Protein: Legumain prodomain domain-containing protein
Organism: Tetracentron sinense
Amino acid sequence: MKHPLEILQLPETMMRYIAGVVLYLTLSSFAVESRDLAGDVIKLPSEVTEFIRGDTDTDTDDDSVGTRWAVLIAGSNGYWNYRHQADVCHAFQILKSGGLKDENIIVFMYDDIAFNSENPRPGVVINKPHGGDVYEGVPKDYTGDDVTVGNFLAVLLGNKTALTGGSGKVVDSGPNDRIFVYYTDHGGPGVLGMPTNPYLYANDLIDVLKMKHASGTYKSLVFYLEACESGSIFEGLLPEGLNIYATTASNAEESSWGTYCPGEYPSPPPEYDTCLGDLYSVAWMEDSDIHNLRTESLKQQYELVKRRTSNDNSPYGSHVMQYGDIELNKKHIFLYMGTNPSNDNYTFVEDNSLPSPSRAVNQRDADLLHFWHKFHKAPEGSPRKFEAQKQLLDVMSHRTHIDQSMKLIGNILFGIDNGPGMLSVRGQPLVNDWDCLKMLVRTFETHCGSLSQYGMKYMRFIGNICNAGIRKEQMAEASAQACVRIPPGSWSSLHRGFSA
């Protein structure tokens, strides 16, 4: 028999095993003795079971190894898109309260909302009707024309030499670090919006995530994505084995939704005529605001957000999805976002009391809602009334132009009987040849003007044209026939387009 001092020198795993056996025998004996008294075997506490089995996630609360990094990006501009920058500012406040340092949080936003002449509270941004200011203290890392695809991808890769403008901050992570990425904006099948051109294609994002993994500079990465058809960014494209867990606001075929919008319930303060947040984004952030993220897992948050974003499976909601290495959702959110110490005593409640909207607004219609309320509230005969009317007519004219152009191109290329069918869902992934997709988009915009945020919904149609073997020359001829000229309105300007 070993001397007690010799036992103390045994490996830690052996010590855990011996202690577990002793504890198991002790509790088992107690359980057997209690059977006659209680009428049933007393179950071991879950903590003890995990201890004996050795399956505790030992790094769940380990804040001493590795660094948390975060990249937050709002991919739009314009006051009618207020909600995207409000989402990003709110996300920053959660991470800041969670203990992340400013140097490890990289923020992309156009920064034209807080001091916009339309903002009823200059210098203040809110993300819910009775919420406080979320703008204060937010780093201005990449603003204005520095919010680009190139800078975003360079930041993810930690490639300072590829940056053009901005603060120069990048994700300079190491192999033990964890990364959280949150992106909110308009989107379409296989594409995400940007306030500058070009937009971000799914294959380019996936390629960069693969490169980041190959560099060995992170332990795991979590990606939260808010956009229409956001599931198409990862569906059939994001492989397992990269230690990446992604959730999206919608599946590959549906819109995402704005919330806290004028005329809806709950609505913003009466002086606001724009949506304050996005449904999926508000769901995960308001959940993070109130829970102890040391004890809440990514999976638990996913389930809560999924229920709230579906809006009881009403027409005013979407289906939250998850992709990549799904098993990572067992990890605690704390590993990526930290946790607010004031929430330490909060226990997780699966059916929380966070409100669901009676209705929400389709992301692609939020601009129309803004211009309508602006027009409706403006005094008769005022310059504001005239401006709002012009903005409303411009965006409606642009939508009509895009719809008619796409319909005509389909009929020219495939005939009246087959053209409409090309708009149908192909399935995953979006397209066989991404270079073809980008080329045909550039060809369309050359002849017809920018697709803009509304025209993103036709990316699947253009992908189907590629998959049918249509060449650039054919697309150019069809586009030239469909579009006699590029409309003069700002929405058709190529500054809003996909083209480089």
Summary: The chain has three domains: 4-53, 68-362, 378-496.
